[in-house]
Automatic annotation (TrEMBL):
Lineage: superkingdom: Bacteria
Pfam families hit by this protein: Abhydrolase_6
Gene3D superfamilies (UniProt xref): alpha/beta hydrolase
Annotated organism of origin: Arthrobacter saudimassiliensis
Name assigned to this protein: Alpha/beta hydrolase family protein
Length: 257
């Protein structure tokens, strides 16, 4: 494989769902796992991927139900682990992972379940079984989606997780409407990821948190480090639930070097 080239394709997950991926850069393989709602065209990690591609072969992909990837009949977190494993197979069978928010949870779950993950960088994993809002929120979201009010479903989710009003007010949610139904997937992923399950992670993990994030996220980051045998915590300058691309890339590179 010519790792200096840019390429794209589809990997088949264990249940036959096609998962769209893209490759850029050269060097050791690194897979980026996006958070709720985002795919390769809307990813907050687009610039980060370009920065990391200077020293790594970076793989980005559309999580199931989003972008150019397919979807299964019934969602389970293990199906998403299988999706990520399929992308890692494309990357040569072993890779480091970087995930943000619910994407960080998915990266950690995959590392706990499989030996093909070499290292993990997890930015603000929402490790709270009650953070997703439960069945009632999923029913409210589904009712809005059934009524064709996908934008309002996205906004309801934003309110439920505590997105600051000034941040939500300036956000154009139209790009996320097509993926609104997958919010329920991330809620299930969040609600079923338990700290005890992370004890199975045997590889080094870097947990990152923004200094501008609220106390919940700060505590979740500390909880993750306490639960994982070989984990370290770094606090980076940033806003609520977000860190600038350049300091984030520098922290990832330093850890993976």
């Amino acid at each position: 494989m010519d790792t200096s080239a840019t390429a794209s394709g589809r990997a088949l997950s264990a249940d036959g769902v096609p998962i769209a991926w893209q490759r850029r850069g050269s060097g050791p393989p690194l897979v980026i796992v996006d958070p709720v709602l985002m795919d390769r065209t809307t990813s907050v990690a687009a610039t980060l991927a370009d920065l990391l591609a200077k020293h790594h072969t970076v793989y980005t992909y559309d999580r199931r139900g989003k972008g150019e990837s397919g979807d299964g009949e019934e969602y389970t977190p293990n199906s998403e682990v299988d999706d990520l494993l399929a992308v890692i197979q494309v990357a040569g069978g072993s890779a480091a992972l970087y995930g943000f928010s619910s994407g960080a949870l998915l990266a950690l779950r995959t590392a706990a379940q499989s030996a093909v993950v070499s290292r993990v960088v997890a930015l603000e994993p929402p490790l709270d079984s009650e953070a997703g809002g439960g069945e009632r929120l999923r029913q409210q979201l589904q009712a809005l989606i059934d009524a064709g009010q996908r934008a309002e479903a996205v906004r309801l989710f934003q309110r439920s997780i505590g997105v600051p009003e000034h941040t939500a007010a300036g956000m154009d949610v139209s790009a996320f409407e097509d993926a609104a139904h997958t919010i329920a997937y991330d809620l299930v992923l969040t609600e079923t990821t338990e700290l005890e399950g992370l004890a199975g992670i045997k590889v080094p993990v870097l947990v990152l948190v923004s200094a501008g994030s609220d106390t919940r996220m700060q505590q979740w980051a500390r909880d993750a480090v306490d639960a994982i045998s070989d984990a370290e915590l770094r606090v980076l300058d940033g806003d609520w639930h977000g860190v600038g691309d350049e300091p984030l890339a520098a922290a990832i590179e330093e850890f993976l070097d």
